[in-house]
């Protein structure tokens, strides 16, 4: 958290999002209004109409003075005309050094708060009881920051409204028969105690060199920055995708030129520190970046003070100009700006909790920059202050040295709470993540158009056309069905051709396969025949974002081709840590088979069992289960003896290797997430049937924790409908766990789980609705998943559109992913049997109060332009 003071420019404000057709684009700008003198040194501003703006701060003449009491603002929403409540503005001293610091010390002021698009403002400076405070510093004004419009070419889908929904009311579907487990045809595979070792390769040396002697070298005088542009240095770590200043629409009206240090010695972690940033959608992060830059201009900085900024969705933004690969001197930690890297996280982490995606992105930036100088992120460094103690919060007197971790918080050198009580304890985790052997890994993403939001995929593999997938972009109000894109094998650029039985879309997964920052889409086609007459050999199609009109396809390697059905399950992750995601796929044929296609086409493959019959119910999840930086895979299947299994595959510098079957039985579904918040990905196994897994009647979910050596049964937890706190009661055929998905719905830093129970019978109007289905949301905690506080959702839940009918099979597929960018995973639930097997999808957003039932909506074949009887809602991703 930081700011400054300085000369203000005056300009007309404008919208913060990309301009609509026919609307003139505008540059970021600032509009200033002087506060009224209300006598006795009191200052304020009555409600008034203003130019358009999206952020606001207050400044005053004397940089050494503080506001008495607390400046507060309330603003009028441009769209609704409603006035907000009062928002506090916190004093924020300048953090610039040298000449930039002298210029920035011309005025005092507060940090800016985000207001969203507004056209009215009211200002007061008050005590805690709301009474106005006198004795305010002279020259108080309010600065209205207009971030302008997004640059040309920026994504524009996110702020579109979802298409209006008209409930589809065709006759109820005929109930489907309850599924039963297959009869065993061969003896069950003997379980191992933990995992069956198969010679996992030893991980190669870390991509970040070991700590050098410079870590403990004697401190030198505070280095002086230089305007001389140094030569860029190569890094041992792959650069992560960064949204450049040009891409987020930065102003180039810099007040000066960049200065450079000699090297980067440490990273200083910040937060922006204002509550309003906790409510900014990732779709608006570009606009927020522009407003922060305007704030820093207004406070006298050369450019934005931070070197990089990260949002909760893991988007990385270039901060201060001058060269991302150079030791640019920032204005983020007075006395320690030279030779340090300033990274800020959008949000106030005194109250909010950091997301896993953001922590991973911060670690990737740290590792990339440290990799230029051979620095161990977990080491220590001795730094010397370049500014007198007490100046704008600096703790360390000029010339005095202090030994700090290589990754430290702003509070370590400044009298501030930054980076917040909930982020500061995570700094050691960031350092550890930055040191992992696979630190060059591709960042996980499900954002194909790179607008900051996760995008939804609905697969409809059934039908005479051979199957289809429909991509529905995320939006600030949920999935934007009006911008949907449907792909078949007859679509432009999609390899192959439509053939009945192909099963195109049986499985789907997102990941950045070509390393351009856009998510690419892997699509399973298990019924694909090859040109040599091998029926149902199967295959995988990969389509590149953002256009999804170019890609490639491939099939099996090294296994029996006929009937292999490769693509029954797919998952994506960077298994070898080269900065580009790889594709994992599996098929059911002849004992089961698997295939890992790495960047450039190198392939690893093998069989799942030694049986000659087919396995069933494949499902795969990607995660870093041992926290080494390489993506791993957990694959669920039912063996030919009718028993559920889960096999672990481990990533390494040489790629993915099959490790072995874990001791916990499998079921029908699997998902990965950090349920206890310790930095290791865990898995949850959906076990809907007793015969396959020994599950409780009606089904259950089982959490298995990840550790440095893989999975452990220590801390394992099983939850079902008879567990305390879980709604309903377990009954044979409920099939709880038929589908599972992991995500953090309440933004507490722990992954939660949404589980489908499509066989649940529900009673409405005194009539039993067989196989109506429901979904249950389970919460994560410091000890992992718990039944406490679990929430059940069905089509009879108040506020949910529609009503339960026999055979709806609500919960046939589920996702728990942040489709709106507010940091809370939203619920998406498929009902494949709705409307006589046409199927529908329910979107239920999460909010600060829990679930936004009144904002939920349903979309079906009519909205998406699909044919009848395709069982929409059978397959969903992410």
UniProtKB/TrEMBL annotation:
Keyword annotations of the record: Glycoprotein, Repeat, Signal
Listed SUPFAM superfamilies: Integrin alpha N-terminal domain (SSF69318), N-acetylmuramoyl-L-alanine amidase-like (SSF55846)
GO biological process: peptidoglycan catabolic process
InterPro entries: Amidase/PGRP_sf, Amidase_domain, FG-GAP, Int_alpha_beta-p, Integrin_alpha_N, PGRP, PGRP_domain_met/bac
Biased composition (Pro residues): 222-233
Biased composition (Low complexity): 161-221
Region (Disordered): 64-240
Family matches, as Pfam families: Amidase_2, FG-GAP, FG-GAP_3
Positions of the Peptidoglycan recognition protein family domain: 240-388
The UniProt record lists the keyword Transferase: no
GO molecular function: N-acetylmuramoyl-L-alanine amidase activity; zinc ion binding
Membership in a protein family: Belongs to the N-acetylmuramoyl-L-alanine amidase 2 family.
PANTHER family registered for this protein in UniProt: PEPTIDOGLYCAN RECOGNITION PROTEIN, PEPTIDOGLYCAN-RECOGNITION PROTEIN LC-RELATED
The protein's name: Peptidoglycan recognition protein family domain-containing protein
Organism: Streptomyces fungicidicus
